[in-house]
């Protein structure tokens, strides 16, 4: 498929959370690993917004960090525009790096407090050697106006701006290398609700203008619904469902997706029946065998405790659930929504 | 980076410095002002010693042995010359030797702090940013070094270095050996503070943003992290200056520091204590008071700076 911009295959990340060597020897403990992501595969098409949703600790940000090279995958490959991303190789990676950028969660930490805004935005331009001299200044002014600030703001320091304005600066920095793909790690979760919509709308406008592709990481389903074309649902580092955004909210296939959707407060008081959220996300150091969701699943079967479910194609995407492969159960499932 | 410095900020840069939090805290602290004035007077007097000093204590042609042991503010019994702070056994003006002595003490102190700072900051940045075995190795070395009293370590380094230097150069190199010895015995605290601050800063998102675009680690360390960890380093450096001056005085007092031909405050105190019991108290007292005033005021400045930079103490 030529219109795939980013594809991720079998992405796995384990963190070594063992105690120091001396403690292990004395206390006779084994090394311990935390599996943040296990065998995650998905594709992002050019020009779309792909969202990853999940609870805290489901490994959303770990995936984002691996894609931009902040973390090394333990296994699996990431392809950007058909090329395998190998962050160890310098020259080839440099050309690729220019084409993707990242917007971070906390606009108070993502801008260096000692740098002027202009220098912050110009950093990618200098690093990739895109422009020199007075052209840099001009480009920074253009970018600032593009994100709704003024060109004269380049001489100010980040602490002179509000959270929303800072996030605009972070977006201007991300755009300065003229990327095609931007990873947005919870871009609005640190902002006031009133400002969130402004930033999201700005991101959409920029997407339309420059044909950007977004990977949107969020735990906020209303943000995801507003922004994305397709959604991947993560549970304990595993993708449980991928579906078109419109269909996912209407007919979730995986029981976990349904539980997530039902957990959204219902301001209309529709009186709809809900699956209440039960239990907590298990410890990723020692995940449950079989389907990781089985201790919390209302439809749990014997097979769920033993065999990891494979991805099954559904009407609107794919999902990993034994219910979908067992016809008799499928018929008895309660109607959705 | 000065590319985006606003042009209109230059004329009122002084005004903005006056309005800053630090300046406000300084104006509100009488102790800090006194300490700053005392330090500044001593430092300026030391820097301009050749122009201020009434006599050149190192030019034997201008010295008169008859002037020896003149008490302060009294005319000499033979020559009738009056010296503010008296003279020593060779007729050298104590005030002038103090000025030149403070010059050497301050030079050694500043250079030793600079040496320790550069070494400590570099190793601290590397240890904090790289982590893993590099961090473990550097910090274990630092831990081991901390178990030795720094003056013992300086003595050791001084002794070893003298063994390597040919006798003809010993006199000329002594001051540099002293600087390296004090600097090497003092880098650990800079390294520890910088390492801790670096570990905090490197996990912040602005550093990750620089890593995403593939910025070189050296550039990230120097341009992004270093400016953000300098606050605590400045505090240690100020207090470290007082400690380095005292360390130099201690070493010179013990006779392993600068040679008697270039006496520092410590050397003057060592020379002076030989005359204490024969009644020439001024040869010991005035260099000691100068050292005390210098070390105390620099230390008080450091204490004030630490409190001023700590937002939790406001």
Q: Could you write a compact summary of the structure shown?
A:
Chain A has 337 residues and is α/β, with parallel strands linked by helices.
Structural overview:
The complex is a heterodimer of chains A (337) and B (314). Chain A is an alpha/beta fold. Chain A has a domain at 254-337. Chain A contains twelve helices and twelve strands. Chain A has an eight-stranded mixed beta sheet with strand order 6-7-8-3-9-10-12-11, with helices on both faces. Chain A has a four-stranded antiparallel beta sheet with strand order 2-1-4-5, covered by helices on one side. In chain A, strand 11 (312-313) and strand 12 form a beta hairpin. Chain B has 314 residues and is mainly alpha-helical. Helices cover 70% and strands 0% of the residues of chain B. Chain B has 13 helices and no strands. In chain B, helix 5 (94-130) runs antiparallel to helix 6 and helix 5 (94-130) packs antiparallel against helix 11. The longest helix of chain B is centred in the middle third of the chain and has 37 residues, at 94-130. The radius of gyration of chain B is 23 Å and the shape is globular. The interface between A and B is medium-sized, with 39 and 20 residues.
